[in-house]
Each structure stands twice: as C-alpha cells, then as structure tokens.
Fold this sequence. Notes:
- The protein has helices at about 50-55, 60-70, 80-90, 95-115, 120, 140-150, 165-180, 195-205, 230, 245-250, 265, 270-280, 295-305; strands at about 5-20, 25-40, 45-50, 130, 130-135, 155-160, 185-190, 210-215, 235, 260, 285-290, 310-315, 325-330, 330-335, 335-340, 350.
- It is of the alpha/beta class and about 350 residues long.
- The chain folds into two domains: about 5-115, 2-Layer Sandwich (Enolase-like, domain 1); about 120-350, TIM Barrel, CATH 3.20.20.120.
- The strands form four sheets. The protein has an eight-stranded parallel β-sheet.
- Helix 3 packs antiparallel against helix 4 and helix 7 runs parallel beside helix 8 (about 195-205).
- The two termini are about 25 Å apart.
- The structure holds magnesium ion (MG).
Amino acid sequence: MVIDNIEIELADIKLTRPYTIAYKTTSSIKNIFIKIILKNGVFGLGSSNVSKYVVGLDTTESYKNAVDFKNELIGKNITYLIGNIDKIENQFINDPGSKAAYNIALYDTFCKSLNISLGSFLGRVIPELPTSITVGIKNIDETIEEINEYYSSGFRYIKIKLGDKIDYDIERITKINEKFGSDIKIRIDANQGWSLDDTIKFCDETKGVELIEQPISVDNTQQLLKLPDSVKEIIALDESLVSYEDAIKYSQNNYGKIFNIKLMKCGGITSGRKIANVALLNDIDLMWGCNDESIISISAALNAALSFHNTKYLDLDGSLDLTKDLVTGGFNLIDGIMKPIDKPGLGVKLI
Ligand SMILES: [Mg+2]
C-alpha cells in the first residue's frame, strides 16, 4: 500500500507543572507531529521533542527538516519498512527529532496496515513495568509534598532531580528516606551537576538509592571509570549516551551498569533498539527515559523497552504533564505500572 500524503505539525504545548533541573527550567515545549496517510485511508502517527542542550538542535529546526523531506516518502510502499527506515536513518544522521518522528510514524503505519500491534511486531518479552515519576529541583517541604501526591496516585518509584549543591542534595535524600523509608524506591538524576568527589560523597552518605543518572558532565565522562565498582552498579549514562556510537564506546569499559535510552536522543525505535542490543551483548541494564513528549512517542518507547530482557527501569512519565496531546491511549497506567494497549500499531487514538 502506497503512502499518499504526509501531514506535519509543530505544536506549542504548555506543561501543567513547570519544573527545574540542574541546567534549566521548563514551562512549555514544542512537539512535532507527523501523520503518514496511505492510499486506502489507513494512517500512522509519529512525534518528537528534542533537547538542544543534549542533541545540538531544537524541535523547530527538526520541524523544518521534516517538512523539507516529506515528498521523498510520498509514493513509497509502506510494506518496504526496512528500506523506508534506512532512507530516514541516512537522511537525518544529525537530526534525531525528524528521525524519531518519521521512524515512529513508519512503524505505526506499517503495523496498522498489517493490523498488528507494535508490541507483537517488536516481540514483547516483558508484559508491563512500573515507571518512575520525576520531582524537579525543589526545597525539602515541596519535594515531600509532591512525593506524597504521587504516592497517593499509586507511584512507588520516584525520580528526584539533584545536582545543585551536594550537601543540600544529601540532606534532601536523607529527609525523604526518613519520611518514606522503604515505601518508595528513589532514583536520582544529577544532570551533570556533580564532581567525581561529590558523587562518591553522595553514595557514602545516603542509602536506599536505586540508581543515579549522569552525575558528572559529558565532558568528564571518563572520570566515571574512577568510581568504585559498587557505585558503577547504580550509575546510568544519560546525556553521555546519545547515539549508537556512544553505546559502542561506553560498553568497551565499565563506565556504569545502566544505559538510559531515549528515543529523543538517538532518533526513534530503530536506533534505540541498536543501542539496546549493544547493551544486551555487554551485560548492561536498560533504563528507558524521555523528554516531555506526546503519548505517541512515549508509547513507542514503551513498546521498544518491553521487547528487551535487559530492560530494568522505565522512566516514561513524559506525557503526563502536557496540557494537550493529539491522541489518547497507547498504554494503561495503573498504580504507576505501564502496560501497552494491544491495538494495531501504537494503540493510540486521535482526539
Ligand atoms: Mg536524565
């Protein structure tokens, strides 16, 4: 079946809960939506929102690239999925935003044209997993208040953004431990805000932390090699691990036991799976993370995540704070546990 038309939109979306991390405060986002329409009326959807700080270009630039390219895909047969994906992979080597949105839209359209779910097509090996939900950089009272809110909604895995001042970071986690104990699991994201010594100090002076994302700056990633092995067990590479090439590089030595894959860093399901396979071969666990994104790309990430045995951590809360989205569905989220909806493609429905 032939691709008849492609519609591309750049949407401004406000967040219900603006947040601060080590290097920025975010209150609204831009998101690309791509709709691939076949001659018989079947359509599939893709979306993306990239972080310029992490990948070097922003979503508006990706949108322009995506629009410039769309005529290259119109007239192509959706059945030739691999060939169509290769075309995207080669076109958008330095633009994970366009790459991800087209990649996800191609998978969704292809699966819908065959009337199968994306989960079946990728080969799901894990039925469901809990996701963490994130608390930005806040004072202790505000942090505890927000955790209480998430706890009441059923979430048990809480990701805390740190990376501001190490002593206050330790104090925040100590207070959270006193308040919640083993009722919740704590994940940390320092977003490059610490030194090597800060990282060791934090691990010495806190307990009950499940993992730490990107403690040290990307420029100093090599310093992770100096951490004790016991600390490396809970280190997740995030900003340092953008592409397949990074995955090759950081699996050659023990920089950290966990890779955080985001479709918005690497550029979609195909690239994410390539990184996941490198990790699998090297006995590295997977965390699947996100930016603030549509349910479309979050569902794509969830289905990719659940198709790998070494997926241990989901951090896919990125669609929960959008004030509007193009779709509903994709997954059910009950008591913090994400489970894909097994309908054709991504299982999403246009609003
Ligand atoms: Mg992170």
